[in-house]
User: What shape does this take?
Amino acid sequence: MTIIVLNTLLKPLVEPHLPDWAEVRWYKTKEEAFALAPEAEIGWFDMHSKDDMARVFGLATKLKWLNSVYAGVDAFPLDLLAERGVMLTNGAGINAVPIAEYVVMLMLSHAKNYREVVRAQERREWLKDSPGKRELFGSKALILGYGAIGQEVEKRLAGFQMDVSKVRRSPGPGVLGPDEWRARLGEFDWIVIAVPATPETEGMIGAAELAAMHGEAVLVNVARGTVIDQQALTAALDAGQIGGALLDVTTPEPLPADDPLWALDNAQVTMHLSGKAQDRMFARSAKRFLENLERYARGKPLEPQVDYARGY
Assistant: This one.
């Protein structure tokens, strides 16, 4: 029997579909997780505290496969897992659909200046004209990061007949390579960032990149706050150097109440809610976990498996 340690929250989604070779031990509290971790061959130990997660990984010395609903891997001791030969499957792509919907919502909200419409309703004021007149139709977008989220964003922007370019490692039609996009930043009305958080992407949008954008360009970040030099971005927004920034992620999180980003009319901060704007995350993740259980039993590659060398 293969011992699997899972949170009891997953029980109704997983238990009816478990194979007969699996012996599942359920935990409800972190103390129960610590007690069960040493026997786990397969584990799913998502916790709110990085310290608690570090402790449980330290205890899980028999672990061969670690699963997580989290797309980011900054909470995981990648060096330790690689050293032990543990396979890590994460939540990459699980939230791609709601995040892509969120991107479109933010873009439309900015284009039509919908915040002013909401404020007018709160004042019970009947506006005589639209406060925002931009259209997505026919505009040009650049998607930085063409993984699951970037691909879902492209599908939705195509419905607005937008001209969409994207960046990935392998250039092609409509695709820019990692060394090509900066020279063309001035062409785009919307720059959507959906890259993984790695040393390579940290600070990839700084003062030089912001200066290269045209004056009405809007930056949309659903990746991580660290991919943008936030100080440089705040200065550019305050000076009206670019049209706006739609930020679902910031540095740090939560964003301090006295941070100047809160007060800028051309910035929207949405508190890292894009992936949470759904009710199917755990159902999707449980389904993927069960599919991977079948692959595990047959010795087939698990999906998506984190590449420790690349850090995602």
About this structure: The mean pLDDT is 96. The longest helix spans residues 281-298. DSSP finds ten helices and twelve strands in the chain.
